[in-house]
## 1
Amino acid sequence: MPSNQSGDAKRTSLHGFWSSRMVFILAVTGSAVGLGNIWKFPYIAGQNGGGAFVLVYLFCVVLIGMPVMMSEILIGRRGRRNPVTTMALLGEEEGGSRHWQWVGGMGVLAGILILSYYSVIAGWTLGYIVKSAAGAFTGASAELIGAEFGAFVGDWRQVVLVHSLFMGLTVFVVARGVERGLEQAVKIMVPALLLLLLILLGYSMTSGHFGEGVAFMFTPDFSKLTWNSVLVALGHAFFTLSLGMGAIMAYGAYLSDETSITESSIAVVIADTFIALLAGLVIFPLVFANGLNPASGPGLVFQTLPLAFGQMPGGAFFSTIFFILLSFAAWTSALGLMEPAVAWVVEHLNRTRAQAAVMIGSLIWAIGLGSALSTNVLSNFRFLINVDTNGDGIMDAKGTIFDNIDYLTSNIMLPLGGLLIVVFAGWVMCRNSTADELGGAGASFKIWRFLARYLAPMGILFVFMKAIGILDWIVALFG
């Protein structure tokens, strides 16, 4: 087997290797491309001025997202173990301390917590495939579609059922291992996802408002761009690439020595960004064609778009394709979220892949019940963080279980994990180790090293301070 270690210290993967560079790119792209690209990116672009936001987002992806991704992959390949053990081994080798294992542990825990509520939203997409195919949105009014959504998420039986179904599908793939499970799944689902998007793009181009959608996406209007918009772009660039949660590190452990980390990272970032932009070009023309609001928030997918599809010829067919697309995107991301924890169980508890997948899947399913019940029987169980329940910018209530787990992971665990990972790669690991993984100390290595040591940590720290309110407190103190 290939080894990524120099000298006598050779280390090989315990879980196998990706069969090719292309499969690795598909796997990481699948992990990165999720509901964030297709569900979240279009509406946050709509809320923050369209083209100007997209431009800032692209800069953030290249200058911050890519160096963090390269750091995760090189750490994963250098360690060849699950994220916890990898950080412990490299921490001891490079910095003389195994305490870095807690960074890997935080990433594994973040993946478990994120998938616990991500599975619930992904389950909604499964439910909406059935509704679309049954023609539930055909000719329906906005009030009827809103009531349909409310009734669906308000029925705990339906929500728990689709949550369970989605977790079952995820466990099935992960249990089959790297080559028979993860690899086969991404070979099918990522190209299928792109094909479905292209079909919908063709449909969107016939809406009569495609030019309006293109103008909205790519004509910068900097008068609508605020500092908060910049922070949103920076945060989304970081989170959409699945960084800070151990998934990319775990996938990097299965990467052969012959594969260029730099070239692979560039390919993943281009593919991830292309799909996010493609989703916007699919969604915005349909929104404008029906006189809807492009900044309608999270309801854009589950309430606004069903209304748009319901008013169009063949809308039931294309609506079904759209929600199949969403479920595929969610499924590929779920595999990456679950893999680090499964790898840890296999290595530390001496379980088979199937046993580990069932154990971790059951744990995630059980935690996810809290989020599944947050829109129905536990909707009044609220605590800790404040949330905006009316979409008017006013924090008017405490958060549900769903809201609190989302806040903890997205605003604290992921940026903190990503910050520590890029600091470890840029400052703790020696120059020779990182240069060895990145193919020598050439121009691309020097650019990565500068971004990883300075720009990326500062950018992530900026987002983290804003997310937890420290930045606002500093501004208020000195403003």
## 2
Amino acid sequence: MEFKNIKGSIVALITPFKEDGSVNFDALEKLVERQIEGGTAAILSLGTTGEYPTMSHEEDDEVVACTIKAVAGRVPVIVGSGSNCTATQIKKSIDYEKMGADALLLISPYYNKANEEGMYRHFAETADKVSIPCILYNVPGRTGCSIPISVVERLSKHPNIVAIKEASGNMGYAMEVAQFCGPDFAMYSGDDDINIPIYAAGGSGTISVFANLLPKESAEIAAKWFAGDTAGALEEHLHYLQLMKKLFIEVNPIPIKAAMNYMGLNAGPCRLPLAGLSEKSAAVLKAEMTKLGLI
């Protein structure tokens, strides 16, 4: 399915694991179905929430193939093909396009970082090599570097770069990105707790962790906003705000997997170096979920 002018809630899907650490493909298929039934506008596979750094390339391919097959063309599938090696990112991007991905999520180079021209070429040269749309991913809390606004401006004019997932948590940065948004370049929130401010700044939706837990509610908040019911969207967003924040009480995706397991959604454990949620954090998360009637 073509990824074009998508508005709404896009889930950054977890990768469910069995207790022995292997990928739980049966659970993955069920989670995909639950997302589509909940009104998710698109599905992101192999994002940060999907724990791709701890999976082999072979596992990456198997998860992508399973996700694309389960979705069966009903919503677009975005695949995270990013790497801090541009050559690797290009190869993975070409491979995922051949596998049937509808769009790609490209992260800024982490650890080695990049100077301004290198940052631009990291994204532009990847987008040059594929024909499906590419989405920039700005998450300096993970990568140790932010995509310079000047580079976002240049990349927003690239014919095959259609959006940015903005996950810096910095509304000042988001407001500068908003200058480049229009019919050919969109901004998606990468932090659930500030989805509404991002929407108000011209964002087109969210690439959401929260949607793993409550896909219908995440989709409804976005739908209300884009239908003009901004007050209703804000009210519902505020209803779940503390839960959204507590899903980051420890490093993502530890809390979201724990929350899903509390609801019987069979997310399984995380892979090391991500250990299970601490007892203290688990008590806080369970209390909020109990307050909302989720467990």
